[in-house]
Write a structure and sequence with these properties.
The protein has 338 residues and is α/β, with parallel strands linked by helices. Helix content is 41%, strand content 17%. The strands form three sheets. Strands 10-9-8-11-12-13 form a six-stranded parallel beta sheet, sandwiched between helices. A four-stranded parallel beta sheet has the order 4-5-6-7. Strands 1-2-3 form a three-stranded parallel beta sheet, sandwiched between helices. α8 crosses α11.
Length: 338
């Protein structure tokens, strides 16, 4: 496998590692080549061979070529534009697209630059590869519109919290980078929540990328900004509802992880969200950017959150988004290419 970096807080990296670990558990040999790997937190199985390559293209290619020669892989699998290296070898190459482009193109100037510098090259890479995997039906339909056929494999979830807490008041959670894509509408939503109800608390987890958004949130009642944390599990365990007002996604792990841990999710009805939430049972999808309605639904779910709701959330994920199902589908794709 090939990915730009391996860090535990990035969704693409988590999926890459989960696939690798699942394959190793089934007796397959797996190697991951990357520019950078977080080895301090011991989050990757020791049986997975991690190869850190130089960032300079020519030196990086030499390391990849040497490793492929020694390792002798049957399948090459990339998760980003590093996959161009794999196109230099005559071994079947799978590309998984984790992108929500072109929907995200106009979210900010940075997204426009990324669209030109990263997404267009990735689009070309998918057309060059032997097989493309999309992570949701939404993503699959978007690729098809651009003339790219793909197989849909949902991201898989493994971890869950065994014991939940049901506390008084409204205890909401936001998880994600605090920026224009995921957090633009969060202040407006939370203001509406606090106007409609008392004793409301919002834990905000994620990198504070947009200082303006962070400042606005800090000035609203009941908001606690934690920044990045070592473990998200305690927050899922104690929260009544996850607020996920993102404007562009492919198959966000946060939405799946929250439900796996018994926490219902409220999201806008865009991209893949309707696929990932069992509306009326594990949360709600709200017409795009209707923030008052979003707040009303968040309050409704938070005030009725109980063990029955948590069980429905856990069952939904286990039956449709389990890690085992993801591994099964990838193995079938690999075998079909040999």
């Amino acid at each position: 496998m090939l990915t730009k970096w391996l860090v535990p807080w990035n969704g693409t990296c988590q999926v890459c590692v989960r696939v690798a670990e699942g394959l190793v558990e089934r007796g397959h040999a797996v190697s991951i080549i990357t520019n950078e790997s977080d080895t301090k937190t011991n989050w990757i199985d020791d049986n997975i061979n991690i190869v850190t390559k130089p960032r300079k293209p020519i030196e990086g290619y030499k390391i990849i070529k040497e490793h492929i020669s020694n390792f002798g892989p049957d399948i090459l699998h990339s998760h980003d534009n590093m996959g161009y290296y794999f196109e230099l070898f005559s071994i079947p190459h799978v590309v998984t697209s984790h992108s929500n482009w072109p929907r995200s193109w106009f979210l900010s100037k940075k997204h426009i630059i990324e669209g030109v510098g990263l997404e267009i090259p990735h689009d070309i890479l998918m057309r060059m590869s032997d097989k493309v995997v999309s992570v949701s039906n939404y993503s699959k339909s978007q690729l098809r519109k651009r003339g790219i056929e793909s197989s849909r494999v949902y991201n898989g979830i493994t971890d869950k919290v065994n014991d939940r807490e049901y506390n008084d008041g409204v205890n909401a959670l936001f998880v994600g980078r605090i920026g224009p894509r995921k957090g633009k509408h969060l202040p407006e939503i939370w203001k509406s929540v606090t106007e409609q109800s008392n004793n409301c608390n919002l834990d905000v987890i994620g990198y504070p990328a947009d200082k303006g958004l962070v400042k606005e949130l800090k000035n609203i009642q009941g908001v606690t900004i934690h920044g990045s944390v070592d473990s998200i599990k305690p927050f899922y365990q104690s929260s009544d509802v996850l607020l996920f007002p993102s404007r562009a996604e492919a198959c966000p792990l946060t939405v799946l992880e929250a439900q796996q841990n018994g926490c219902p999710v409220i999201a806008f009805d865009i991209c893949s969200h309707r696929e990932l939430i069992d509306t009326g049972s594990t949360g709600s999808v709200i017409p795009a950017y209707e923030t008052t309605k979003f707040a009303q639904e968040a309050l409704s779910w938070a005030k009725t959150h109980n063990s029955e709701v948590s069980s429905a959330c856990e069952s939904w994920i286990s039956n449709k988004f389990s890690n085992e199902m993801m591994i099964d589908e990838y193995v079938n794709i690999y075998l079909s290419m040999l």
